[in-house]
TrEMBL record:
It holds the Pfam family Metal_hydrol. The chain crosses the membrane at residues 200-221. Signal peptide: none annotated. InterPro entries: UCP07580 (IPR016516). It comes from Fluviicoccus keumensis. This is Metal-dependent hydrolase. Residues 1-23 are annotated as: Disordered. Keywords: Membrane, Transmembrane, Transmembrane helix.
Length: 302
């Protein structure tokens, strides 16, 4: 009886997403002690990551809203829990990146232009029909999951990044893989038109690619590095060179346009299992930052 009561209490406390492997982990990172140029002591590359960080809170709100529009279509209990997990994870990502963005602003890294550019681009996407908006989300989730895989698979990131700062990015990357199929599975309920997916992907590219280059250049100029050719050349190479962070995922982007595409076809389960153990296992290196670990882990046991 006592055991039953304990189990019941644990299940009441469990976040729904945790039941289906998408737990909303309440994390509290310590970013204050990090270097200003937290990626390879390079301003240009660091500012690329700063731009991404400034885009996550509004971007993730767009993702959540586009899925929320169709939440009522979800009848399957498992998918309902997955949607809860997705919402919870994205909300916490936004919150932690907001904290990082505030720190960057305190350090004089001016994020106003990239934030305005992202909001303008996302505002244009919000004018599309709701089904095209969720299709756009599935494309951006595909892109994010590929970047996440790249970041976790390539040991170079941990070597080049500030050891404290990389933890936030590794956690975010890992959770992007955990929930990578959720928006897509909701879009399946909306009808999943290949033509609409292609249209949405094109709309994302047309609105967001110019925003990337304008925002990045603006950040570099505001940092006083517009004439630091060495820094710029190195940073461009780190992001867009033959072995660059973004370059590696480009060949995999068109997978999204395949007739029978599904995010789970590109299997990352072994990579996820490896990182789950390293981050949140018995001696996981993120356990001290993981505030609701007991609730999530109790869930995992039942
Ligand atoms: Fe996220
Ligand atoms: Fe995501």
């Amino acid at each position: 009886m006592i055991e039953e009561t304990t189990t019941l209490k644990a299940s009441r406390r469990q976040p729904a997403g945790a039941r289906v492997g998408i737990p909303p982990r309440q994390m509290d990172f310590h970013m204050d002690a990090t270097n200003r140029y937290f990626y390879d002591d390079n301003a240009t590359a660091t500012l690329f990551f700063a731009m991404l960080s400034s885009w996550f809170p509004p971007g993730e709100r767009f993702f959540m809203n586009s899925v929320r529009n169709y939440r009522d279509l979800v009848q399957d209990v498992r998918l309902k829990d997955q949607v809860s997990g997705f919402m919870g994870q994205e909300a916490i990502h936004g919150r932690e990146h907001d904290r990082l963005n505030q720190l960057l602003e305190q350090r004089g890294i001016d994020l106003r232009f990239p934030v305005a550019a992202a909001k303008l681009g996302l505002g244009l996407l919000e004018r599309l029909p709701k089904s095209t908006q969720i299709a756009a989300t599935t494309f951006m989730e595909h892109f994010t999951a590929l970047l996440a895989e790249d970041l976790l698979e390539n040991p170079e990131f941990a070597e080049k990044a500030d050891p404290e700062m990389i933890k936030l990015w590794q956690w975010h990357a890992f959770e992007e893989l955990e929930h990578k199929a959720v928006a897509y599975d909701v879009y399946e309920l909306v009808g999943n038109s290949r033509i609409e997916r292609a249209t949405a992907a094109a709309a994302v590219v047309v609105t967001m690619v110019p925003a990337v280059f304008l925002s990045w250049a603006w950040l570099v100029a505001r940092e006083g590095k517009a004439t630091d050719i060495r820094d710029i050349r190195k940073g461009l190479n780190l992001m867009l060179g033959p072995q660059g962070f973004v370059t590696g995922i480009l060949p995999k982007l068109p997978l999204f346009l395949a007739k029978h595409f599904h995010p789970a076809q590109h299997d990352t389960s072994a990579l996820e299992a490896k990182w789950a153990k390293a981050m949140f296992g018995d001696n996981g290196f993120l356990n001290t930052y993981f505030k609701n670990r007991s609730a999530v882990m109790e869930t995992a046991v039942h």
